[in-house]
Design a protein that fits this description.
The chain has a domain of 169 residues. It has nine helices and no strands. The protein is flat.
Amino acid sequence: MSPEPDSLAEGTLISHLLELRERLIRALVAIGILFVPCALYANQLFTWLAEPLLKMLPKGSSLIATGVAAPFTTPFKLAFFVALFGAMPYVLYQVWAFIAPGLYRHEKRFALPLLVSSIVLFYTGMTFAYFAVFPAIFHFFAATTPKGVAMMTDISQYLDFVLVLFFAFGAAFEVPVAVVLLVVMNLVSVQKLRAIRGYVLLGVFIVAAFITPPDAVSQSIMAVPMYLLYEAGVIMARILVRPAPTAAGEEPSTTS
C-alpha cells in the first residue's frame, strides 16, 4: 500500500524546512566569522571609508560624533555591513544550493552564470562608487559650502549616506542581469529593448538625478555607466538567449 499523498507532502515540506534552516545557519555563521576581524578593526575600516570625504574637507576640519555612543556604534555598524557584503557570495551560494535541485537543466544554464555575474557586478558598482563617485560628490559638497559655514559631518549620517550610495550603485550595475532576465522570461524581446533606447537613456538620467547631488557631473557619473550597462545587457541577451527547444516531458534535474 503506497503512502498517503498528504504524508508525502508533509514529509517533503519538513525536509525542505530542515534544509532551509541548515542553509540559513551556514550563512549566519559565515557572516559571524567575518564579523569578528571586522569588529576588531572597525575604527580602521571607518577611517578608510571616510577618506574620500576627509580629503575634501578644508584644512583643520574633521568628522564629528554628535551622539554619546556614536564613536563606538558607528564603526560597529560598519563592521557588520562589511562582514555582510564580504560573505554575500557564500550566502548567495547557499540560496543557489537550496533552489538548484528544483530547476530545469535549461534554467540552470542561465541561472548560475547570472548569479555569478550579479555578484561581480554588484562589487564592481560598489568599487566604482568609492573610487569615482565619492570624490566627485564630496568635492561638490565642499565647493558649495556657504562662506562662514564649517563643513563638519556627523559620522553616523556619513555612514548612512555612503551605505545608500553603495547599495544604489551596486544595484545600478545589475542592469545587464535584469535585462537578460527580462528576455529569458519572455517579458520583453531584444528588438523591443533596442527600440526603447531613448526612453531608457532619459530614465537613467532621471534616476541619477534623484540619487546623486544636483550637478551634471555627478549625474553623468552614474547615468552614463548605467546606460552602457543597459547596452551590454542587450548584447548579452542577444548572445545568450536562443529559441528554446521544446521541453515537453523534461523533469527538474536533481543534481545541484
